[in-house]
Each structure stands twice: as structure tokens, then as C-alpha cells.
Specification:
Blueprint (H helix, E strand, L loop, with lengths): L3 H33 L7 H12 L7 E2 L2 E2 L9 H5 L1 H9 L1 H4 L13 H15 L31 H5 L6 E2 L2 E2 L15 H9 L1 H4 L12 H11 L4
Antiparallel strand pairs: 1-2, 3-4
Helix pairs in contact: 2-6, 4-6, 8-10
Bound molecules: heme C (2 copies).
One heme C binds next to helix 2, helix 3 and helix 4.
Length: about 230
């Protein structure tokens, strides 16, 4: 049995030890914040992107760092998942990316606003979140089923999720680049493959991005874009 004074000493010493541990850990956590929050990369463009995010209440549908609503995809790692070219095309015209089944709001963002948003997503994508969001990540939304019976129905998934943001087939899709209905006659398989692997090499200054497609994906696309019959 502890005497009354021993119990008091035990209480005071215990409280002191654990308070010190608590303070030390708090200081350590706070000292790590600048490194983990990727603070150094927070440029004015990142801040402007964050303002656009707040002003438009994107959180009413999306989550960032797990905060927000669960209607639309979690966006903390969207930059790595999708890449800047895809995001630019998507934010400019979500409808082009998911024809006939648009759920994402078509904001009329200027190019500058889109660039700012992408900077913001790039920054937040580099915040050290201890591995959040955990694998398996939210699957990217399935591309909309194209309107029945069209050529698009048989398109490779790369076409539906990427090319379709900027190009159209049979009038369905984006308007950033030309329609791709009539490539046969103007392209053979070799030239088309070359174009897809490095558009700049074929046409310097072109606005068609280098999408870093693998040879297998290019082969599939070329086969579909240039059907033999
Ligand atoms: C009304 C709900 C809603 C709001 C508000 C909204 N989004 Fe979305 N967003 C969606 C949905 C739903 C998708 C999934 C694709 C689709 O169905 O169009 C999406 C997809 C996205 C994607 C692509 C994610 C991926 O990995 O495919 C990005 C980037 C995005 N939204 C950014 C934004 C930004 C930035 C804002 C605010 C300026 C915003 N969204 C506001 C509903 C919304
Ligand atoms: C971010 C938008 C964007 C995306 C994504 C995109 N393209 Fe393009 N593409 C363009 C633009 C813009 C042009 C016109 C380039 C020019 O004429 O300088 C173009 C041109 C082309 C052309 C030449 C068309 C012609 O009439 O000569 C082909 C073929 C093509 N793209 C195929 C594809 C394929 C296949 C994909 C998907 C792997 C794709 N593109 C993804 C923007 C895009």
C-alpha cells in the first residue's frame, strides 16, 4: 500500500513524465509539418487553384485528403493517376470525356484557371499523407457506355478514356483535336504509330500531346483506328 504522500508523489511524477512525452511528441509533429505538407512547392498558382477549388465548392461532390463528399472520385492523387494533359482536356470539357453521361460539372474555366487547378492538384498530390488514399485506390470512373451500335462501342479503353476527350468519332467526343473518322486513306499503320508515339517529331509545334503510350496500346489503337475492312 502506498502512503498518502507516496501516492501524491507517484501521481505528480507520473503526470510530469507523460506531460513531457506529450510535449516532445507535439513539438516533433509540428516540426515535421513543413516537410510533409510540401510547403516549399506552394506557389502562387497553387494558391489560386485552391481558391478556385473553394469558390466552386468542388468538395460538395469530391474529397481531398479524405475531406468532403463521397459523390465523386477522391482527388488527392488525381495528378499522378491521370496526368496533366488528361486533366486539362477533362476540365475543359468533361462532357467530351464522358459523352452523353456527364456527371462532372462543365465549368467554363479559362486556360489559366485550369492551369492553376492542375498546379494545385500536383502540389496536393505530393503531400506526404502516410500512404492515403490506401490501395486499392478508388477505381477511375468507368467511361460512359457510348450510344448503342456506334463505332465507339468497340473502341479500346484508351480511346474512350483519353483520346475521346479531345477527338470525336461519328460526332461523339471532344472538339480539341480533329474528328478521327476518316484516317484511312490519309494514314498507314506505320505513320499513325509514329504520330501516336511522338507527335512533335512528326509535326513540330503541334498541340497534340505526347501521351507516352506503350507499343501494345498504340498497336491496339492503330488497329482500331485503321480497320482493314
Ligand atoms: C456536382 C458534383 C461535382 C462537382 C461540384 C465537381 N465535380 Fe468533379 N467530378 C464529378 C463526377 C461525378 C466525376 C466523375 C466523372 C464524371 O462522371 O463526369 C468528377 C470527376 C472529376 C475529375 C476527374 C477525376 C478522375 O480521376 O477521373 C476531376 C479532376 C474533377 N472532377 C475536378 C473537379 C473540380 C476541380 C471541381 C470544382 C471546380 C469539381 N470537380 C466539382 C462531380 C463533381
Ligand atoms: C489533349 C487533347 C488531345 C488528346 C488527349 C489526344 N489528341 Fe490527338 N490531336 C490533338 C490535337 C489538338 C490534334 C491536331 C494537331 C495538329 O494538327 O497539329 C490532334 C491530332 C491527332 C491526329 C491527326 C489527325 C489528322 O486529321 O491528321 C490523330 C490521328 C490523333 N490526334 C490521334 C489521337 C489518339 C489516337 C489519341 C489517344 C491516344 C489522341 N489523339 C489524344 C489533341 C489531342
Amino acid at each position: 500500500m502506498l502512503s498518502k504522500s507516496q501516492a501524491k508523489l507517484f501521481f505528480l511524477a507520473g503526470t510530469a513524465v507523460f506531460s513531457m512525452a506529450f510535449l516532445a511528441l507535439t513539438v516533433d509533429s509540428l516540426a515535421q509539418v513543413p516537410g510533409r505538407s510540401n510547403e516549399a512547392a506552394m506557389t502562387p498558382a497553387v494558391v489560386r487553384g485552391k481558391m478556385i477549388w473553394d469558390r466552386n465548392n468542388c468538395m460538395g461532390c469530391h474529397t481531398l485528403l479524405g475531406e468532403g463528399a463521397y459523390y465523386a472520385p477522391e482527388l488527392t492523387r488525381v495528378y499522378t493517376r491521370r496526368g496533366p494533359e488528361w486533366m486539362r482536356a477533362f476540365l475543359k470539357d468533361p462532357n467530351g470525356m464522358f459523352p452523353g453521361e456527364r456527371r462532372m460539372v462543365a465549368y467554363k474555366f479559362s486556360d489559366q484557371e485550369i492551369a492553376d487547378l492542375i498546379e494545385f492538384f500536383q502540389w496536393i498530390g505530393n503531400v506526404d499523407t502516410n500512404g492515403f488514399p490506401f490501395k486499392p485506390d478508388l477505381a477511375p470512373p468507368a467511361p460512359a457506355a457510348p450510344v448503342g451500335g456506334s463505332r465507339l462501342a468497340s473502341a479500346p479503353s484508351t480511346y474512350k478514356t483519353l483520346c475521346n476527350a479531345c477527338h470525336s468519332i461519328e460526332g461523339q467526343g471532344g472538339k480539341v483535336g480533329p474528328a478521327l473518322d476518316d484516317l484511312r486513306g490519309r494514314y498507314d499503320a506505320v505513320t499513325l504509330d509514329k504520330w501516336l508515339s511522338d507527335p512533335q517529331a512528326v509535326k513540330p509545334g503541334t498541340a497534340m500531346p505526347n501521351l507516352k503510350l506503350s507499343p501494345e496500346v498504340r498497336k491496339e489503337l492503330v488497329g482500331w483506328l485503321l480497320p482493314t475492312k
